[in-house]
TrEMBL record:
Protein name: COKA1 protein
Species lineage: Eukaryota, Metazoa, Chordata, Craniata, Vertebrata
Organism of derivation: Nyctibius grandis (Great potoo)
Domain Fibronectin type-III: 166-255
Cellular localization per UniProt: Secreted, Extracellular space, Extracellular matrix
Keyword line: Extracellular matrix, Secreted
InterPro entries, A to Z: ECM_Assembly_Org, FN3_dom, FN3_sf, Ig-like_fold, VWF_A, vWFA_dom_sf
Primary site of residence: secreted
Length: 296
Protein backbone atom coordinates (compact mmCIF):
# COMPACT_ATOMS: atom_id res chain seq x y z
CA UNK A 1 0.00 0.00 0.00
CA UNK A 2 1.16 3.56 -0.57
CA UNK A 3 0.08 7.00 0.62
CA UNK A 4 1.50 10.42 -0.24
CA UNK A 5 1.21 13.41 2.05
CA UNK A 6 1.70 17.14 2.35
CA UNK A 7 -0.83 19.01 4.49
CA UNK A 8 -3.46 16.39 3.57
CA UNK A 9 -2.51 12.68 3.24
CA UNK A 10 -3.78 10.83 0.17
CA UNK A 11 -4.02 7.06 -0.29
CA UNK A 12 -2.62 6.11 -3.71
CA UNK A 13 -3.47 2.41 -3.35
CA UNK A 14 -4.38 0.06 -0.52
CA UNK A 15 -2.66 -3.16 0.53
CA UNK A 16 -5.21 -5.27 -1.33
CA UNK A 17 -5.18 -3.26 -4.57
CA UNK A 18 -2.58 -5.30 -6.52
CA UNK A 19 -1.60 -8.95 -6.50
CA UNK A 20 1.57 -9.01 -8.64
CA UNK A 21 4.93 -7.25 -8.60
CA UNK A 22 4.39 -5.98 -12.18
CA UNK A 23 1.11 -4.30 -11.17
CA UNK A 24 2.81 -2.51 -8.28
CA UNK A 25 5.71 -1.33 -10.46
CA UNK A 26 3.26 -0.01 -13.06
CA UNK A 27 1.40 1.87 -10.31
CA UNK A 28 4.69 3.41 -9.16
CA UNK A 29 5.53 4.51 -12.71
CA UNK A 30 2.15 6.24 -12.97
CA UNK A 31 2.47 7.95 -9.60
CA UNK A 32 2.21 11.74 -9.63
CA UNK A 33 4.35 13.58 -7.13
CA UNK A 34 2.39 15.52 -4.50
CA UNK A 35 4.19 18.70 -3.48
CA UNK A 36 3.41 20.84 -0.45
CA UNK A 37 4.00 20.90 3.28
CA UNK A 38 5.43 18.18 5.53
CA UNK A 39 2.85 17.08 8.10
CA UNK A 40 4.38 13.70 8.94
CA UNK A 41 2.32 13.18 12.11
CA UNK A 42 -0.91 13.61 10.18
CA UNK A 43 0.39 11.17 7.52
CA UNK A 44 1.26 8.48 10.09
CA UNK A 45 -2.18 8.87 11.67
CA UNK A 46 -3.74 8.50 8.20
CA UNK A 47 -1.83 5.26 7.60
CA UNK A 48 -3.05 3.84 10.91
CA UNK A 49 -6.64 5.00 10.55
CA UNK A 50 -7.10 4.29 6.83
CA UNK A 51 -4.43 1.96 5.40
CA UNK A 52 -3.84 -0.62 8.14
CA UNK A 53 -7.46 -1.71 8.49
CA UNK A 54 -8.82 -5.08 7.25
CA UNK A 55 -11.09 -3.40 4.71
CA UNK A 56 -7.96 -1.82 3.15
CA UNK A 57 -6.31 -5.24 2.79
CA UNK A 58 -4.45 -5.55 6.12
CA UNK A 59 -4.38 -9.20 7.22
CA UNK A 60 -4.59 -9.69 10.98
CA UNK A 61 -1.99 -12.45 11.01
CA UNK A 62 0.53 -10.47 8.94
CA UNK A 63 3.32 -8.34 10.40
CA UNK A 64 2.72 -4.60 10.03
CA UNK A 65 5.55 -2.46 8.60
CA UNK A 66 5.53 1.23 7.68
CA UNK A 67 8.31 2.78 5.58
CA UNK A 68 8.37 6.57 5.91
CA UNK A 69 10.10 8.50 3.11
CA UNK A 70 10.59 12.22 3.77
CA UNK A 71 12.78 15.06 2.56
CA UNK A 72 12.07 17.59 5.31
CA UNK A 73 11.37 18.22 8.96
CA UNK A 74 7.80 17.60 10.04
CA UNK A 75 5.60 20.64 10.65
CA UNK A 76 3.53 18.77 13.26
CA UNK A 77 4.19 16.23 16.04
CA UNK A 78 5.42 13.15 14.18
CA UNK A 79 6.76 11.52 17.35
CA UNK A 80 3.34 11.26 19.03
CA UNK A 81 1.75 9.59 15.99
CA UNK A 82 4.74 7.28 15.53
CA UNK A 83 4.59 6.19 19.15
CA UNK A 84 0.93 5.21 18.71
CA UNK A 85 1.88 2.92 15.81
CA UNK A 86 4.85 1.42 17.66
CA UNK A 87 2.69 0.74 20.73
CA UNK A 88 0.49 -1.42 18.46
CA UNK A 89 3.46 -3.51 17.35
CA UNK A 90 3.80 -1.74 14.00
CA UNK A 91 7.44 -1.36 12.98
CA UNK A 92 8.52 1.95 11.39
CA UNK A 93 11.48 2.39 9.05
CA UNK A 94 12.46 6.03 8.43
CA UNK A 95 14.28 7.09 5.25
CA UNK A 96 15.46 10.69 4.91
CA UNK A 97 16.43 12.46 1.70
CA UNK A 98 18.20 15.83 1.27
CA UNK A 99 16.95 18.10 4.07
CA UNK A 100 15.44 15.46 6.35
CA UNK A 101 15.98 15.94 10.09
CA UNK A 102 18.03 12.94 11.24
CA UNK A 103 17.13 13.46 14.90
CA UNK A 104 13.45 13.30 13.98
CA UNK A 105 14.01 10.17 11.87
CA UNK A 106 15.54 8.48 14.92
CA UNK A 107 12.59 9.57 17.09
CA UNK A 108 10.04 8.19 14.66
CA UNK A 109 11.76 4.91 13.77
CA UNK A 110 11.56 1.65 15.71
CA UNK A 111 14.51 0.10 17.52
CA UNK A 112 17.22 -0.89 16.68
CA UNK A 113 17.94 2.37 14.88
CA UNK A 114 20.96 0.98 13.02
CA UNK A 115 18.50 -1.18 11.06
CA UNK A 116 15.55 1.20 10.72
CA UNK A 117 17.03 4.66 9.97
CA UNK A 118 18.56 5.64 6.61
CA UNK A 119 19.59 8.98 5.12
CA UNK A 120 20.77 9.83 1.61
CA UNK A 121 21.81 13.11 0.00
CA UNK A 122 19.45 12.99 -3.00
CA UNK A 123 16.60 10.96 -4.49
CA UNK A 124 18.69 9.06 -7.12
CA UNK A 125 20.76 7.60 -4.26
CA UNK A 126 17.68 5.80 -2.89
CA UNK A 127 18.43 2.97 -5.30
CA UNK A 128 21.56 2.19 -3.27
CA UNK A 129 19.37 1.29 -0.28
CA UNK A 130 17.14 -1.22 -2.04
CA UNK A 131 19.26 -4.35 -1.49
CA UNK A 132 20.03 -3.61 2.15
CA UNK A 133 16.51 -2.51 3.00
CA UNK A 134 14.93 -5.56 1.33
CA UNK A 135 17.17 -7.90 3.31
CA UNK A 136 16.52 -6.09 6.59
CA UNK A 137 12.74 -6.01 6.06
CA UNK A 138 12.54 -9.71 5.27
CA UNK A 139 14.73 -10.60 8.24
CA UNK A 140 12.67 -8.47 10.62
CA UNK A 141 9.42 -10.07 9.41
CA UNK A 142 10.85 -13.55 10.00
CA UNK A 143 12.12 -12.59 13.46
CA UNK A 144 8.76 -11.14 14.52
CA UNK A 145 6.85 -14.10 13.10
CA UNK A 146 9.08 -16.52 15.00
CA UNK A 147 8.51 -14.61 18.25
CA UNK A 148 4.78 -14.70 17.71
CA UNK A 149 4.84 -18.43 17.01
CA UNK A 150 6.88 -18.92 20.18
CA UNK A 151 4.00 -17.53 22.20
CA UNK A 152 4.72 -13.84 22.60
CA UNK A 153 1.72 -11.55 22.14
CA UNK A 154 1.55 -9.00 19.34
CA UNK A 155 -0.97 -6.18 19.63
CA UNK A 156 -3.25 -5.85 16.65
CA UNK A 157 -5.49 -3.16 15.28
CA UNK A 158 -9.03 -3.92 16.43
CA UNK A 159 -11.40 -5.20 13.78
CA UNK A 160 -14.45 -4.38 15.86
CA UNK A 161 -15.46 -0.86 14.93
CA UNK A 162 -18.85 0.82 14.87
CA UNK A 163 -20.72 1.94 17.98
CA UNK A 164 -18.62 -0.16 20.35
CA UNK A 165 -15.30 1.51 19.54
CA UNK A 166 -16.28 4.64 17.63
CA UNK A 167 -18.07 7.85 18.70
CA UNK A 168 -21.19 8.96 16.82
CA UNK A 169 -23.35 12.00 16.15
CA UNK A 170 -20.81 14.80 15.75
CA UNK A 171 -22.52 18.19 16.13
CA UNK A 172 -20.90 21.56 15.38
CA UNK A 173 -22.63 24.56 16.93
CA UNK A 174 -22.09 28.10 18.24
CA UNK A 175 -20.07 28.97 15.14
CA UNK A 176 -18.57 32.47 15.10
CA UNK A 177 -15.88 34.10 13.00
CA UNK A 178 -13.21 32.80 15.41
CA UNK A 179 -14.62 29.73 17.16
CA UNK A 180 -16.96 26.73 17.06
CA UNK A 181 -18.22 24.16 19.58
CA UNK A 182 -18.01 20.38 19.01
CA UNK A 183 -20.03 17.67 20.77
CA UNK A 184 -20.30 13.94 20.09
CA UNK A 185 -21.79 10.79 21.60
CA UNK A 186 -19.23 8.40 23.13
CA UNK A 187 -18.80 4.80 21.94
CA UNK A 188 -20.19 1.96 24.04
CA UNK A 189 -16.68 1.23 25.22
CA UNK A 190 -15.20 4.53 26.51
CA UNK A 191 -11.78 5.33 25.00
CA UNK A 192 -8.69 6.27 26.94
CA UNK A 193 -8.29 9.52 24.99
CA UNK A 194 -9.79 11.47 22.12
CA UNK A 195 -7.63 13.05 19.42
CA UNK A 196 -9.27 15.99 17.65
CA UNK A 197 -7.64 17.18 14.41
CA UNK A 198 -8.83 20.32 12.58
CA UNK A 199 -7.51 22.33 9.66
CA UNK A 200 -8.70 24.57 6.80
CA UNK A 201 -9.94 22.52 3.85
CA UNK A 202 -7.74 24.49 1.42
CA UNK A 203 -4.52 23.21 2.90
CA UNK A 204 -3.86 25.20 6.08
CA UNK A 205 -1.80 23.91 8.99
CA UNK A 206 -3.46 21.02 10.87
CA UNK A 207 -3.80 21.41 14.63
CA UNK A 208 -4.73 18.81 17.17
CA UNK A 209 -6.07 18.56 20.71
CA UNK A 210 -5.92 15.47 22.94
CA UNK A 211 -8.72 15.07 25.51
CA UNK A 212 -9.48 12.63 28.28
CA UNK A 213 -11.82 9.83 27.21
CA UNK A 214 -14.54 11.02 29.60
CA UNK A 215 -14.89 14.37 27.74
CA UNK A 216 -17.32 14.59 24.81
CA UNK A 217 -17.20 18.26 23.84
CA UNK A 218 -14.63 20.87 22.86
CA UNK A 219 -14.58 24.56 21.92
CA UNK A 220 -12.17 25.36 19.11
CA UNK A 221 -10.94 28.96 19.24
CA UNK A 222 -8.47 31.27 17.48
CA UNK A 223 -9.78 30.14 14.09
CA UNK A 224 -9.57 32.11 10.85
CA UNK A 225 -12.75 33.93 9.82
CA UNK A 226 -14.74 32.98 6.71
CA UNK A 227 -12.85 29.68 6.33
CA UNK A 228 -14.05 26.12 5.79
CA UNK A 229 -12.65 23.73 8.41
CA UNK A 230 -12.38 19.93 8.37
CA UNK A 231 -12.77 18.39 11.82
CA UNK A 232 -12.00 14.78 12.88
CA UNK A 233 -12.55 13.11 16.27
CA UNK A 234 -10.63 9.85 16.86
CA UNK A 235 -11.00 7.58 19.93
CA UNK A 236 -7.72 6.17 21.22
CA UNK A 237 -7.56 2.86 23.08
CA UNK A 238 -4.64 0.92 24.56
CA UNK A 239 -5.00 -1.51 21.65
CA UNK A 240 -5.51 0.92 18.80
CA UNK A 241 -7.51 3.73 17.26
CA UNK A 242 -11.24 3.45 16.55
CA UNK A 243 -12.94 4.86 13.47
CA UNK A 244 -13.09 8.65 13.50
CA UNK A 245 -15.96 11.06 13.18
CA UNK A 246 -15.57 13.74 10.53
CA UNK A 247 -17.36 17.02 9.94
CA UNK A 248 -16.99 20.20 7.93
CA UNK A 249 -18.21 23.72 8.60
CA UNK A 250 -17.22 27.30 7.84
CA UNK A 251 -16.51 30.08 10.28
CA UNK A 252 -18.50 33.27 9.84
CA UNK A 253 -17.08 36.29 8.03
CA UNK A 254 -16.05 39.24 10.16
CA UNK A 255 -18.88 41.73 10.50
CA UNK A 256 -18.68 44.78 8.24
CA UNK A 257 -19.51 48.41 8.94
CA UNK A 258 -22.87 49.51 7.49
CA UNK A 259 -24.74 52.62 6.36
CA UNK A 260 -21.87 54.76 5.14
CA UNK A 261 -22.89 58.44 5.05
CA UNK A 262 -21.11 61.54 3.72
CA UNK A 263 -21.60 65.00 5.22
CA UNK A 264 -19.91 68.36 5.82
CA UNK A 265 -18.36 68.70 2.38
CA UNK A 266 -15.91 71.51 1.72
CA UNK A 267 -13.41 72.25 -1.04
CA UNK A 268 -10.82 69.95 0.56
CA UNK A 269 -12.60 67.76 3.18
CA UNK A 270 -15.56 65.48 3.80
CA UNK A 271 -16.93 63.83 6.94
CA UNK A 272 -17.81 60.13 6.89
CA UNK A 273 -19.94 58.23 9.38
CA UNK A 274 -21.09 54.58 9.58
CA UNK A 275 -22.67 52.02 11.86
CA UNK A 276 -20.06 50.12 13.84
CA UNK A 277 -18.87 46.62 12.91
CA UNK A 278 -19.23 44.23 15.84
CA UNK A 279 -15.87 43.43 17.42
CA UNK A 280 -13.84 45.86 15.32
CA UNK A 281 -10.98 47.53 17.21
CA UNK A 282 -9.84 49.81 14.37
CA UNK A 283 -11.00 51.00 10.94
CA UNK A 284 -8.98 51.55 7.79
CA UNK A 285 -10.44 54.28 5.55
CA UNK A 286 -9.29 54.44 1.93
CA UNK A 287 -10.21 57.19 -0.52
CA UNK A 288 -9.17 58.17 -4.03
CA UNK A 289 -10.30 60.65 -6.65
CA UNK A 290 -12.96 59.32 -9.01
CA UNK A 291 -11.68 58.80 -12.58
CA UNK A 292 -12.59 61.34 -15.24
CA UNK A 293 -16.19 61.00 -16.36
CA UNK A 294 -17.28 59.00 -13.31
CA UNK A 295 -19.85 60.21 -10.83
CA UNK A 296 -18.25 62.09 -7.96
Amino acid sequence: GLSQYSSDPRTEWDLGAYSTKDQVLEAVRNLRYKGGNTFTGLALAHVLEQNLKPDAGARLEAEKLVILLTDGKSQDDANLAAQTLKNLGIEIFAIGVKNADEAELKQVASEPLELTVYNVLDFPLLSSLVGTLTQVLCTRIKEKSNKENAGSTVKDIPVNTGPQLSPTDLKISAVTSKSMHLTWSPPLRPPKKYRIVYYPSKGGNPKEVVLDGAVTSLRLSNLTSHTEYLVSVFPIYDTGVGDGLRGVTSTLPLSAPRSLRVSELSHNSIRLSWKAAQGATQYLVLCSAAPDGAED
